[in-house]
Design brief:
The protein is α+β, with helices and mostly antiparallel strands. It has eight helices and ten strands. The radius of gyration is 19 Å and the shape is globular.
C-alpha cells in the first residue's frame, strides 16, 4: 500500500493575470488530500483514469492497481482540488509502479493532466501543491516558467476562508470571459503591482501593507468582472471592519465565488482559519 498526501492552496494575488505571464504569489495551506494505491483491479474512471494514463505512458507500463482518494479540499471552491488530485495520483502511482520519488517529474506530469481538464492552466496550482510553502510563480512561455519557493515564512496569523457558495461557472469559463475583456492589459498591469506588494508584506510581516494590497488587488478583479454582485457587499463589510478579502481562483459572476480569502483579526462566525506555507506533496508510507 502506497499513501501520498497533498495540500490545497490559495492564491494571495495574481489569479487570471498569471495566465498572461504576470506573476502570482501562492501558498500551500493546511487542508490535505490523500491518495492510496494498492494491488488490485483498476477502479479508476473519468479524469482520474486520464491522469493514470499519463503516468502509464510516461513509464511505459499498463500494470493495474486499485486507487482510493480522500479529501478535505472541497471541489469547485478554488482551493486547488483539481491540482491536488493530479499531483497526488501522479505521485502515488509513480511510486507504486517504479519506486520513484521525484517531485519535479510529478509536477510536470500533473501539469499535463491539468491541461486536459482546464485547457490553458498557468501551472501555478500544481506547482504550489507539489512544492509547498510560499511560491512566486510566473509563466514566461509554455516551455519556460519562473518558480521560486520563497525562503521565508510569515508570522501573519489572521487568514480565514469565508464560504460564499460554489460558483455556477467553472474556471475554464471564467478564464475565457477574462480573455475577451477590452481593459485586460490595464487589469494585468494593476494586478501585478499588488502581487509584488503582497510579497513584500508577507516577507516583512507587514499587516498594513498586506491589507492595502489585498484591497487594491481585489478591486482589479472586480473591475475585470470576475466578482459577482452577490459577493461584493460581503467584501466591503470585511473592509469596513479593518480587514481585507478577495476571491480565489477563477471567481464567479452569477452567484457565489467559492471561498473568499480574508485577513481579519475578528472574523465572522463560520470563518475557517487557515495556515499558509504548509508542506507540499508527501509520501506517508511505502
Amino acid at each position: 500500500m502506497i499513501t501520498v498526501s497533498v495540500p490545497g492552496k490559495v492564491i494571495l494575488m495574481g489569479e487570471h493575470a498569471v495566465v498572461y505571464g504576470k506573476p502570482a504569489i501562492l501558498a500551500a495551506i493546511n487542508r490535505r488530500l490523500t491518495v492510496v494505491v494498492t494491488d488490485g483491479k483498476s477502479n479508476a474512471t473519468g479524469h482520474v483514469a486520464d491522469i493514470i494514463a499519463i503516468v502509464q505512458k510516461h513509464f511505459h507500463t499498463q500494470k493495474e492497481f486499485h486507487i482510493t482518494i480522500n479529501s478535505d479540499i472541497p471541489q469547485g471552491y478554488h482551493l486547488g482540488s483539481s491540482a491536488a488530485v493530479a499531483v497526488g495520483v501522479v505521485a502515488a502511482t509513480s511510486y507504486y509502479l517504479k519506486k520513484i520519488w521525484n517531485p519535479t517529474v510529478f509536477n510536470q506530469l500533473a501539469y499535463e493532466a491539468e491541461k486536459l481538464k482546464h485547457g490553458n492552466p498557468s501551472g501555478g496550482d500544481n506547482t504550489t501543491v507539489t512544492m509547498g510553502g510560499l511560491i512566486w510563480y510566473r509563466k514566461e512561455l509554455e516551455f519556460l516558467k519562473s518558480i521560486w519557493q520563497l525562503p521565508f515564512k510569515t508570522t501573519l496569523k489572521h487568514f480565514y476562508l469565508i464560504d460564499t457558495g460554489r460558483p455556477k461557472e467553472n474556471t475554464g469559463e471564467m478564464v475565457a470571459f477574462v480573455k475577451i475583456q477590452k481593459n485586460l492589459q490595464k487589469f494585468l498591469d494593476a494586478n501585478e503591482i499588488q502581487t509584488k506588494q503582497i510579497a513584500v508584506a508577507i516577507k516583512e510581516n507587514d499587516e498594513k501593507t498586506l491589507i492595502d494590497a489585498m484591497q487594491k488587488g481585489e478591486r482589479t478583479l472586480e473591475e475585470i468582472g470576475v466578482v459577482s454582485k452577490k459577493v461584493i457587499p460581503i467584501i466591503r463589510k470585511i473592509e469596513a471592519s479593518g480587514g481585507a478579502a478577495k476571491i480565489l481562483g477563477g471567481g464567479g459572476r452569477a452567484a457565489g465565488v467559492g471561498y473568499l480569502l480574508c485577513y481579519l483579526k475578528n472574523p465572522p462566525k463560520g470563518a475557517l482559519p487557515i495556515t499558509l506555507g504548509e508542506e507540499g506533496v508527501r509520501l506517508e508510507n511505502r
